[in-house]
Amino acid sequence: MKTVADVMTNMPIVVRVPGNRNDAINLMVRNKLTGLPVVRESDGQLMGIVSRRDVFRNVSEDQLSLIMKKNPIVISPEATIEDAARIFHEKRIHRLPVVENGKLVGIITPTDLIREIRHMRTSRTSEDAIRLKCVTCYEGDPLSYVVAAMRISDVSAMPVLDGHGKLSGIITDRDLFVDQTKDLEVMREMGLDDTCSDLAGYRNVLPLFYMATHEDELPENALVKSYMVPNPTTVFMKTPLNEVAKVMDVNDFGQIPVHGDKDELVGMIYDVDVLVALIGDENE
Fold it and tell me: For burial by CB atoms within 10 Å, which of 13, 60, 130, 184 has the most?
């Protein structure tokens, strides 16, 4: 079995405290990241983890030390990737700082393990991995409803159903405000300049910021159908997890809708769910 050291990112990009939210946003945008380890400026000691969702759950707070998650779960470089998979799966987190002798030496994410699973042989399927109930929306729902539903449910993606209850699309927090992704005023609020407007990381970060700070400005007549991705990639309940991992890795997906035997939507499978291919069923 491979170890964490075999698959982790060495010398990860970090944000430092004291610092503010714009320091974190800039690093995430420019490096196409959705989260960062936080270290102390004076000695490089790991102090926490900050993700884009942490930033935008606390939009009224500017100080990074008050936004970040303190005392994060960490892992040793000598731990197995099975150990890491179990933590991701049980805690449903997406970043594990790798610490050796008290120092941050790397970081590992579910994506690192997804790349291992896609090359494995496994008898496990989507059906074995789905854990959470699926939160859906209707293609005719107002966009304002979906924004609120995402916040209440703490999800970043929702399958979209048509009038017959069939899957017609998927909407993610990346899709919601594509029209605003060149809004220079919003960019300046994030501490960015217009050179960032073409960066992929910018689109990953802006939607949540806009949702949190401009919800009262959502277009009243905007419907989900106008913002969703139609005909999304899907997998079936019997799709082997190595195939699911391949689809996620190739397309940079964090979740995929799952169809049943009669082509009905049965749920969503997330990257941390797929990791059961490494650790087995928790009931075993």
Answer: 130
